[in-house]
Amino acid sequence: MDGNIIYLFLNKTAVKLNILVFCIFMLFSHHIKAQTTYKMSNNKVYDCRGKLTDSEGNKVNTKWYASNEDFIFSICVSGASSINIKFNGTFNVEANADFLKVYNGKDTFASLMKKYDNSNKPSGIISTSDSCVTFYFHSDKFVNGDGFELSWEAKITSVPQPKFTPI
Length: 167
Description:
Layout: H1 2-32, E1 36-39, E2 43-45, E3 49-53, E4 70-76, E5 80-87, E6 99-104, E7 111-116, E8 125-127, E9 132-138, E10 149-156
Parallel strand pairs: 1-3, 2-4
Antiparallel strand pairs: 3-10, 4-9, 5-8, 5-10, 6-7, 6-9
């Protein structure tokens, strides 16, 4: 009988220790996980944070976007109240021909927040009021450029609470 009590005590202690290690890992894991970098394409992702660059599809200047592009890239984060977007480095998109549109929602039917090109370059941080943001990039067949790089980070407001059951 005493062996069973010791086994139950050790088993409960091990479970509590595993839960503690898991909670500590979850608490610090966002500091060690690298952001994923995506290239502009027709895609939908669910990452809480990341980077998005132009397609870099130009055959002559490999870091530039290509001609005749029409890409829609959406980010949707469950539990987010908003998504903050910051443009990094240079922004070089042909004025009055190529553009990047930013929509406050899951697709291009959502409200248009901003339209950027070289005559209207982004500055500062823009924030959605939705758990999704959609980017639409268009380029014509003529002039190309360095394009853009942006990063995003979702503001999470509702996190599902874990459910623990007694042992």
